[in-house]
Amino acid sequence: xxxxxxxxxxxxxxxxxxxxxxxxxxxxxxxxxxxxxxxxxxxxxxxxxxxxxxxxxxxxxxxxxxxxxxxxxxxxxxxxxxxxxxxxxxxxxxxxxxxxxxxxxxxxxxxxxxxxxxxxxxxxxxxxxxxxxxxxxxxxxxxxxxxxxxxxxxxxxxxxxxxxxxxxxxxxxxxxxxxxxxxxxxxxxxxxxxxxxxxxxxxxxxxxxxxxx
Amino acid sequence: xxxxxxxxxxxxxxxxxxxxxxxxxxxxxxxxxxxxxxxxxxxxxxxxxxxxxxxxxxxxxxxxxxxxxxxxxxxxxxxxxxxxxxxxxxxxxxxxxxxxxxxxxxxxxxxxxxxxxxxxxxxxxxxxxxxxxxxxxxxxxxxxxxxxxxxxxxxxxxxxxxxxxxxxxxxxxxxxxxxxxxxxxxxxxxxxxxxxxxxxxxxxxxxxxxxxx
Amino acid sequence: xxxxxxxxxxxxxxxxxxxxxxxxxxxxxxxxxxxxxxxxxxxxxxxxxxxxxxxxxxxxxxxxxxxxxxxxxxxxxxxxxxxxxxxxxxxxxxxxxxxxxxxxxxxxxxxxxxxxxxxxxxxxxxxxxxxxxxxxxxxxxxxxxxxxxxxxxxxxxxxxxxxxxxxxxxxxxxxxxxxxxxxxxxxxxxxxxxxxxxxxxxxxxxxxxxxxx
Amino acid sequence: xxxxxxxxxxxxxxxxxxxxxxxxxxxxxxxxxxxxxxxxxxxxxxxxxxxxxxxxxxxxxxxxxxxxxxxxxxxxxxxxxxxxxxxxxxxxxxxxxxxxxxxxxxxxxxxxxxxxxxxxxxxxxxxxxxxxxxxxxxxxxxxxxxxxxxxxxxxxxxxxxxxxxxxxxxxxxxxxxxxxxxxxxxxxxxxxxxxxxxxxxxxxxxxxxxxxx
Lengths: 213, 213, 213, 213
Prior knowledge:
Four copies of one chain form a homotetramer.
Chain A: H1 6-19, H2 35-41, E1 47-48, H3 65-70, E2 75-78, H4 87-100, E3 103-108, H5 111-118, E4 124-127, H6 139-142, H7 144-157, E5 163-166, H8 172-180, E6 185-187, H9 190-193, H10 198-212
């Protein structure tokens, strides 16, 4: 609820403000209904949380790539652990997103699955062990091996794809650790959304990223 | 694509204009990403096409009732034939929608299933035989028995719930037939969305409704 | 694992032995792969745990009604809480089962949903609140209202369908309470399957049923 | 229906007879309910058509690896195009099958997806473009590029895994072509199951395999 409707727009403005004069790219992945108003209010990358592997037509109740693009999104998450997809649909979503002009961040929960999704040639791969999501225990500290193993396996099959990591990331230290393990960025939800002062959390993350560079 | 983004807003304004001085209530069920901008531009009821049977929390990629409400929707479709739901989720969606202050139109494809969903006490029941959806052959003319049987079976278990019917409805005559069979309104998509002049189609529907009253 | 393969056959024989000279009908719902061998070894009703709403053809990996019938099953469960189905498929499964000569026991977790599935005219309705399944706390004692409310609502829309109840049923007392609430029988899994002497548990159930009659 | 119940057992015996004195390994993937009786009657490898990514416990209506193993199966198909699975479940099924002592044949519809599933280290990968399944137009002749591309991509990430191909394979020539494209075997359904004399079709396949070796 902290990231729904007007509160989502407010949060987006705060995050934009923290990052606007830096070299860091902060993207947002709001709920579908909030994409349009956030896109109209901030100038940072916006991602849908999901698209359906479906083309316009008999698609009532589904999320079309074209619709999220028309609302102003720049990209979409695919296969988030809270919205797992059949393998064949992951591939179709990456393809449909490309056709609609959307970037893709495809998520996976293990190093092996991260490599599998990297074969679909998304714009980014995100590794998020589901068992740590929302726990406040950072994957980059609790399970650094899964991060390094993911980086290794992903780059073996797709040497150039940027890799994000997420799950439990809460502090600048967690972010610093994640980048030092070979990732190119992080995925974060509750640590920012539920913070009393989200802009301070994001500022700490930015500082850690610059330090790690 | 005719009902995505700016075109959805334009279409909504046209429909509002046709119905604004009449006693007829015309609602819209746009894509999720278009709800907010349509709600900001027209003053007629807006329905989401679907909500997920899920509460805020670990719901990335899902559609929360609270989110569509915050975007300005007045209600939601549930169990559309292109987005069929487990029985238990139909019931949960009606409940979650009520809690969020959303009206519900629960869809079913047969008379028996229409009665089954009427037991969940939605605000409206819609009968739409999937085999006629998008065909241009109106359920109210091709299969009037399914409409009368639905009205009978629904009212047996829930005497007061309004009943809509849809599938293939294209002309004023189709609408007139539908109301004369005992329904309280219609659900329509392609006949309006794909019409060269959607406002004329809606005007013809309105005329038929007034004639049937 | 206690009810897989040879152990399932042994268990079935024990249950048959307890009930064979009584007026009580005990049915079994083994795993798909065990239906054939159990049917070949005992002479009591056998139910599949599920069938798919699919007809022969492109159905690799699915469970056809005809296949469970050919293996010797007499019926099938439909919509068990561990295998919930879209509303439309519940109805199709009842229909496909009838065509294949299989009896149906359609499950539901609430009184309202029990009435909804009763509209599909299955051979039996089973009410099983998922939150009590496998707990050892019997629905008939923990939540007798849901049982009486289910009986009332089901019989309102389908006055003759027999009603089973399940979830947490462990003792003869639980069974007696269930029947006294207006049900016609019980559904039970772990209390029998995991008992050191399943035949004694079943014997206690039978005694309770006779006492309640 | 041609491969259900007793007819499945008869068909299995015929196939065993054709291959029993040859160096060719012919496996069968019958329906769940037929595994036990086929395993009891023939001595060739038997595969389930699917297992669920679930462990014993609250699994009513699902197919446990342990259950198909106990019935006599040697392995299982995973992710057949008629039973597509979430990526994460493909991986879990391979793992659960290994623990239960079952071989795995993981299916994929494109070269890219074939490589993705090869990362899960199944015992075999099968490439089956869904658009050709059941058409009688053999993938090995209609779309040889997808086969060679699959072999190339799969071996790049998993050099030793055997590769099967399927979809439309109907004649000895189709089989010969498939092996010459670098595959190690074929998957076939309707061409054998619906043949008036299945044993002759299988004999022709065997001849083609020996010729291609």
